[in-house]
Design a protein that fits this description.
- This protein has 3 domains: about 210 residues, 3-Layer(aba) Sandwich (Rossmann fold); about 90 residues, Rossmann fold, CATH 3.40.50; about 80 residues, ACT domain (Alpha-Beta Plaits), CATH 3.30.70.260.
- Helix content is about 45%, strand content about 20%.
- It has 16 helices and 14 strands.
- The strands form 3 sheets. It has a 6-stranded mixed beta sheet, sandwiched between helices. A 4-stranded parallel beta sheet has the order 5-4-3-6, with helices on both faces.
Length: about 425
């Protein structure tokens, strides 16, 4: 088992090579959620995630002969960059095996740290198996993403920082994939202040650690596609499972839609960029998975920010639509000069901002002298949309169809009883 002295030794070992990230009070999020929220922003590490802590500790603790021979890892994202960064820092050669479907940006970032990237397999499991083959062929040291005491101890330094940054901390919420991060944090916290509760969060798409705890033994569960791919692990580690079973107070699951909303709320209200895995812990607060935390001081680990910008853009637009801040209307108008201008004049009177206009003259059931106009508009709220539609009807537009989206069901909690 990893112990507190192991984590304290890891902190001294990696000091000056890995950032002490901020753990800042998030006043607006606290008021929304009825919990005194502090965001531990591991997204501010140079590699964009907490993974550099464990990787750095592992490589610095290795015998010089092993570092000289080189290291190898399998990853499609944050672990790859963490190992590549640590290897560059200590002067070791790193080989990273990544699935063939890995986005180009992640491959480029890993290579930018000087690592050799080998693309193999359709998913992480195939990449992992190939990495083990290359390890044996080349005589390399394998750096496991979570089932390694040095990795766990390195991740545990995050827990040491939170206790120091928020002295009266009452609970910590941590995302769980293979369990390396929460194992390190829970060990660091419980062996100093056992009264501080540690809660884990997994996506419903990958609940292997929660299922393992419920069964009392390791359970393998193949994950389904998830926006939080960083915590989609088929089976947790033997070592991390034992630590989680000893120190973690509870694990809850969150839906994909909750993670999506959490990414948006962290960005807009918390001013923190997060990937799906990084937002999972906050998603649990937002979805009220831990009602016992109401009014208490809670640190939420934002574990990473390496999100594809195309995905982030889709999340922003989907979230705005669910909050009635974007709307798409199909409106039938007379296909004559000035027809579009007259329609837009009504929209302007109602102070809606036009983002996109499309004409539909062919794939439609309109008469020859009519056309369907599709407007994508920026609006304030549901009341603004209803007022706009009523105004259009008053001006004689009788065929108005709103392209609906599911409303955002996330509750907005009452203000906290005590201020930060």
């Amino acid at each position: 088992m990893v112990t507190l002295p192991d984590i304290l030794a890891a902190r001294e070992r990696i000091r000056g090579r890995v950032k002490t990230t901020p753990c800042l009070a998030a006043e607006e999020l606290s008021e929304r959620r009825g919990v005194e929220v502090y965001l531990k922003q591991e997204s501010q590490q140079r590699t964009g995630s907490f993974k550099s802590r464990g990787a750095m500790n592992k490589l610095l603790a290795m015998p010089e002969t092993e570092r000289a021979a080189g290291v190898i890892a399998a990853s499609a994202g944050n672990h790859a960059q963490g190992v590549a960064f640590a290897a560059a820092e200590v002067g070791a050669k790193a080989t990273i095996v990544m699935p063939e479907s890995t986005p180009i940006i992640k491959i480029a970032r890993t290579r930018a740290y000087g690592a050799e990237v080998v693309l193999h397999g359709v998913d992480f499991d195939e990449a992992f198996d190939h990495a083990k083959v290359l390890q044996a062929e080349r005589g390399l040291t394998f750096v496991h993403p979570f089932n390694d005491p040095l990795i766990i101890a390195g991740q545990g330094t995050c827990g040491l920082e939170m206790l120091e940054q928020v002295p009266e901390l009452e609970a910590i919420v941590v995302p769980i994939g293979g369990g390396g991060l929460i194992s390190g944090i829970a060990t660091a916290v419980k062996e100093q202040r056992p009264e501080v509760e540690v809660f884990g969060v997994q996506s419903e798409s990958a609940p292997s650690m929660k299922l393992s705890l419920e069964a009392g033994h390791l359970v393998e569960r193949k994950s389904t596609p998830s926006i939080a791919e960083g915590i989609c692990v088929k089976h947790p580690g033997e070592m991390t499972f034992e630590i989680v079973r000893r120190y973690v107070d509870a694990i809850e699951l969150v839906s994909e839609s909750a993670i999506e909303r959490a990414i948006f709320e962290l960005l807009e209200t918390g001013k923190a960029v997060s990937e799906g895995a990084g937002a999972a812990a906050y998603a649990a607060l937002m979805a009220e998975r831990f009602p016992q935390l109401e009014g208490r001081k809670v640190a939420v680990v934002v574990s990473g920010a390496n999100i594809d910008l195309n995905i982030l853009n889709r999340i922003i637009e989907r979230s705005l639509a669910k909050q009635s801040r974007l709307v798409r209307l199909h409106i039938r108008v007379q296909d004559r000069p000035g027809g579009l201008a007259a329609l837009l004049a009504v929209v302007a009177e109602q102070e809606a901002n036009v983002l996109r206009i499309e004409h539909h003259r062919v794939f439609t059931d309109t008469s020859f002298w009519e056309t369907d106009i599709e407007l994508t508009l920026e609006t304030r709220d549901r009341e603004h949309i209803d007022t706009l539609i009523a105004a259009l009807a008053d001006h004689g537009y009788t065929r108005i169809q709103e392209v609906g989206v599911a409303l955002d069901p996330s509750p907005i909690r009452r203000p906290m009883r005590a201020k930060l």
